[in-house]
Amino acid sequence: xxxxxxxxxxxxxxxxxxxxxxxxxxxxxxxxxxxxxxxxxxxxxxxxxxxxxxxxxxxxxxxxxxxxxxxxxxxxxxxxxxxxxxxxxxxxxxxxxxxxxxxxxxxxxxxxxxxxxxxxxxxxxxxxxxxxxxxxxxxxxxxxxxxxxxxxxxxxxxxxxxxxxxxxxxxxxxxxxxxxxxxxxxxxxxxxxxxxxxxxxxxxxxxxxxxxxxxxxxxxxxxxxxxxxxxxxxxxxxxxxxxxxxxxxxxxxxxxxxxxxxxxxxxxxxxxxxxxxxx
Length: 279
What we know:
The chain is α+β, with helices and mostly antiparallel strands. The protein contains ten helices and eight strands. It has helices spanning 55-68, 101-107, 112-131, 163-168, 183-186, 193-209, 219-228, 234-237, 243-252, 264-276, and strands at residues 12-13, 16-24, 28-35, 41-47, 79-85, 88-94, 144-146, 152-154. The strands form two sheets. A six-stranded antiparallel beta sheet has the order 1-2-3-4-6-5. A two-stranded antiparallel ribbon has the order 7-8. Helix 3 (112-131) packs antiparallel against helix 6 (193-209), helix 3 runs antiparallel to helix 10 (264-276) and helix 6 runs antiparallel to helix 9 (243-252). It starts with 11 loop residues before the first strand and ends with a helix.
């Protein structure tokens, strides 16, 4: 991967031989590793000791992972297991051999059709997750991975926990990345698939304008913007962004979930129409 950070800070984690560090972030450190039981190359995330808010959060993730293991979709990373023992809490999943969307946006030249294809693949992965009864909770560029063949893979889905956890511990939504959080989550309301549509709207705004809709560094003002401020139209920010595509992104960013797209399939179909009109 192009954003690899180098040699690991430990040689072994449980039965996994660590090969290199793939990334570090707010949730933990991700390693490329080899499963010594079967020789399979995997990605293993060692969570920060402060990531899990309580035992209920750990139990909620463990239960969800049992369901995630059954997921089979080209645009969703395959989750293998969750480990909660003496060496720490770990998530073991498919190793994806390319960069993430953050790297792509920083290094690849502007190409409208290519970016629309990426959006379509993200929509396909999200729709699958939603149809399985989950929301992603933290969609952002660093959670969108690519294989070397250009296939999009969504990762880190539903790590914020399920609805039961949110009812008992509303502060769990503080773990959602603030720049991409939907207004209803700022209000500590229930996350729905339309919350992911909003987060994808923030991501799309960045993809097609070169900046996020609210480029502010004050957390409380950022939350205020998510709740009350309408961003500039993407076509105004970047004249290369078609106006009708900008309209789609603005609809994704509506404050009221009812005013967004019904689901990611509907969004994907609308985006496909924009792509066809420019071939």
